[in-house]
Amino acid sequence: MAPVSIFGGLVWILVASSLVPWPLVQGWVMFVSVFCFVATTTLIILYLIGAHSGETSWVTLDAAYHCTAALFYLSASVLEALATITMQDGFTYRHYHENIAAVVFSYVATLLYVVHAVFSLIRWKSS
């Protein structure tokens, strides 16, 4: 399984188990992590079974998806970090640290999606 799926799954688990003061932020972060996890897993499976057949449209799809996923994860990471900063007071120590872990893994997933997007765009440009 790809590292982005592993870190995305960790974000999904941590946000689902944590207490975020703004339900809208928690909903967006959950949507992004679940959507990217499912879409990345689907693309990996399709690639492994050879559905791409070496067509250039798959290179375009890969570049477009990873650019979109990187943008989604960046927005989710910033919102999760903002929610975590605002919950320093009035929440339990455990909830605060779960959110910190979710923010860290979310930024790692963002970095991995950005790196993959850059390499996908380079491959797309050369095809």
Automatic annotation (TrEMBL):
GO terms for molecular function: structural constituent of myelin sheath. It comes from the Eukaryota. Residues 1-125 form the MARVEL domain. It is a multi-pass membrane protein. The chain crosses the membrane at residues 28-49, 70-88, 100-122. GO terms for cellular component: membrane. InterPro entries: MAL, Marvel, MARVEL-CKLF_proteins. It is found in: Membrane. Coiled coil: none annotated. One of its GO terms (biological process) is myelination. Keywords: Lipoprotein, Membrane, Transmembrane, Transmembrane helix. Its main location: membrane. PROSITE patterns: MARVEL. Belongs to the MAL family. This is Myelin and lymphocyte protein.
